[in-house]
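Hey,
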Amino acid sequence: MFIEERHQAILTWLTEKGSITNEEIQKQFGISYDSAKRDLRILEEKGLLKRTHGGALSLHQIAVGRAAKKTIKDIESIKDNYLFIALKALSMIENNDVIFLTSATICYFMAKNFPSNIKVRVVTNSIVIAEELRIKDNVSLILLGGEMDNKGNCYDAIAVETVNRLRFDKCFITSAFISAEFGLSIQRTTAISFFNAVINSSKQTIGLFPKEKIGFNSIVSICPAERLDIMLTDWDASEEDLKLFDEKGIEIIVVEKEEQEIKK
């Protein structure tokens, strides 16, 4: 197979599956690890994919916001990195903390796996997350009110006013995408005031960003990236992207797959 044919086959794989690893390229095409990395570097330089630590992602998949369009109950196709970031985030919660969990798949995983050995007060704008937490004896729950959207979330002025009256030890948030230059971004303007109110009310802001969300921009910027104190991401995030966030003073915590699998 000529190199041009191999490159086209890699792009076809990405179109169909959304991601590819260096090991999958080696096995599929019978080439060395260094050759697989070189193929991905060439294709990235042509603007045809985005390299990660262990492979590459489809630019088309990310650009259309497929990951961002998932609802928090649409967890069938979510990869392990979402769950493992959620488990790492849970390990950062301390006894008697007051925390905020935003409406997102990762925070839904946090709610599903919430520990029973600590007492915590949780604030959320998601009726789905609240439903998971209300049955837990060790969780004191505050569900923010206001006009609810069709996914069971509140972002309006009533929710913002309530957040302004609260103080959190930690808030766990995410957005459609994040980049060093454009910050946290989303598709609609309706949640801008809400997210900024949450950050303003928090002693520590922790961003939960799987590799699929890093290094790209949606339409509307919520706030600069450096408003995060900590960013949790996974083992396949681009090292070049993470370096840019590190230069902005954000503490980067990379969740290692092997470590979380042992804990499971």
